[in-house]
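Lecture notes, unit on protein representations.

Consider one protein chain, 253 amino acids long.
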Amino acid sequence: MNIVCIIQARMGATRFPDKVLFDLEGKPMLVQQIERLMHSKLIDTVVVATSTSIADNAIKALCDKHRYSCFRGSETNVLERYYKTALAYEANIIVRVTGDCPLVDPEVTDKVIQYYLDNNYDYVSNTLVPTYPDGLDTQVFSFRVLGKANKEATTKLEREHVIPYIKNHPDIFSLANVECEQDLSYMRWTVDYPEDLKFIRAVYKRLFRNNKRFGYKNVVKLLERNPWMMELNSKFKRDEAYHKEVQNDRRNR
């Protein structure tokens, strides 16, 4: 069984271009995220799935420099890119994360993977009913499920994103959610805007130098001692941009 973590990442993010390569305690943000995921006990391979756009040559160069696995595919048809990445790396089970989550916790990721392995669901995540901070998102599914989604998804939203076809068809796929011990969904740890990066840098500055393998519980304790830090990016709502895309998709049908 080959468990492959695929990180989708590109330079041309609409809201915050080039964010994945911005410095985070002496390393590009994407490198910090990859190194965290490499501490997973269940993932066999970590692959960066980027596009064939010229702008994403920088991501390919970074992966080559650090000898990270990298696959390039369509810039707009992300579902197809994801499928072709999984195919190229002979994945049996896919772990999906995005390249804007430098606080991703491998223990949380492993918890979601283990739940998938121990049960008989098509799709397991910790995002169906969010209880973890935004930025610890992990989604697990089989190559068969991904292949079916790639074959049958037709709308612009379903092709531009990996998961909508799966989540929108509970009549076809069985879905399960993994919850945190406490509801921390109000915390924002992802990077979509400059304010988010300011928050992430503040966290890393206080934790990374003394404990390079700090986990989400360390961050929670830090924020409890320094609640002002959460004000740095509190004006943004969880998945705000994605929800707008969903609304536009519904109006255009």
